[in-house]
Amino acid sequence: MCSPRFMIAVPVVILSAALSLSQNVERNHTVLVREVHFSGNLGESADQLHEYTEFLIGHLLERKKLLEDASSAVRQALRHRGYLKVQVTPQLWSLKPSPESKDVEVVLELAIKAGKQYRVKDLTFVGLSRQVAQPDLRQACNIRSGEIADGEQVGSCVTNLRTLFQQKGQDVFIVPSMIFEDADPIVSFQFDVEE
């Protein structure tokens, strides 16, 4: 009968043989993604995050672009859910070469530090915003106090504010900023409207 220590070591050895940070991955310009794994503080379930990385699996992709696209997709997904300070670190692990495949097959691992999930505290407008009524500015942004802070809504707010001012004959640019209160965790958005 095998000792418990030996029984634990066997899967580790098999896993190490199947996955290794291979120089093949570093040398090859393109890789074929077979699987995506997540580790760390995910913020959301792995199943939800898989929805944002599914498009990578089974495709031959440029290594650098793969790492950028995967990190960006997961960051956007988590920022959409209030994790505004999320950090994503991608790493490729080479699978044992398959005799049928000439491509370097890899597992993509995304190490995530989701951080805190923020809620909206307040919305303020400065600069040329005094030329438009506060209710119109708030309606253009559609961001409400108490709701989960959505990074995508900030982008929509900037676009809507620009459109609102263009309708009044003014060409402006909008500079958004965030003020974090980590203890609660809440965030205030400020939109500076400038010519």
Structure description:
The protein is an alpha/beta fold. The chain folds into 2 domains: 4-113, Roll (Ubiquitin-like (UB roll)); 119-194, Roll (Ubiquitin-like (UB roll)). It has helices at residues 4-18, 23-27, 46-53, 63-80, 134-141, 151-167, and strands spanning 19-20, 30-41, 60-62, 87-95, 105-113, 119-127, 173-181, 186-194. The protein has a 5-stranded mixed β-sheet with strand order 1-4-5-2-3. Strand 7 and strand 8 form a beta hairpin. It is elongated and about 70 Å long. The model is unreliable at 1-25 (pLDDT under 50).
Essential attributes:
alpha/beta; Ubiquitin-like (UB roll); 2 domains; 3-stranded mixed β-sheet; 6 helices; elongated
Q: By helix and strand content, what is the structural category?
A: alpha/beta
What would you report as the Rg, rounded to the nearest angstrom?
23 Å
Ends apart, CA distance between termini: 79 Å
**General form:** elongated
Strand content: 25-35%
Largest sheet: 5 strands, mixed
CATH topology of the largest domain: Ubiquitin-like (UB roll)
CATH level 4 superfamily of the largest domain? membrane protein fhac
Task: Report the strand count.
Answer: 8
Report the uncertain regions: 1-25
Query: What strand line-up does the widest sheet have?
Result: 1-4-5-2-3
Task: Give the helices and strands as they follow along the chain.
Answer: HEHEHEHEEEHHEE
Q: What's the pLDDT, averaged over the residues?
A: 85
Q: What is the overall number of helices? A: 6
CATH class of the largest domain: Alpha Beta
> Roughly what percent helix?
25-40%
- CATH architecture type of the largest domain: Roll
Instruction: Quickly count the domains.
Output: 2
